[in-house]
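EI: anyone free to look at a 183-residue chain?
SC: sure, send it
EI:
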Amino acid sequence: MVTLSVLAIILMLASPSFADFFERYRLRSAVDDTLSVFAQARQAAVEADRNVTLAVGGSTTAWCVGAVQAAEPAANSGALVDETPTACNCSTTPASCQVDGGQMTVDGSGRPGVSVAAVGTAFTYDSKGGTLREEDITAGLPKTISFLSSSQRYGLAIQVNALGQARACTIAGKRPIPGYKPC
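SC: here you go
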């Protein structure tokens, strides 16, 4: 009986740290999955020699990130293809987010409590080298997408530089998360 009482007390004391662990885990998962989509989109742009546009859609709490690749030119048609594809709407039509024939999205619904502060952000990877297009560079760098945990104590940002390289970092004023440097 004494053993059960001691065990119950230990579990009650550990409960807040478990909640904190899961809060950080959801945030890290969202950021890591989004970084993966960025890397795959950049690689696909270069490999297929077609621009890829990334966009953050939905709302701050019901967010998604999607990528769409420019259409492949028809053989011997002589028709021009739009170099910069219009951003897909991953919140209403996720199937429109296609790169190399496969759907490319990250959905925030599986990460309860994680919010995104950059809904509406879009930029395009150029097919020549995977860099950002000149229009995106002149609009300001780095491109930043901020993710916040449910308690707002933790925050990570994804920053994309002119070369198209994406990195994650801890937002200033938020608690540090192991493995991420401050922005």
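EI: Residues 3 and 9 are 10 Å apart (CA to CA).
SC: 👍
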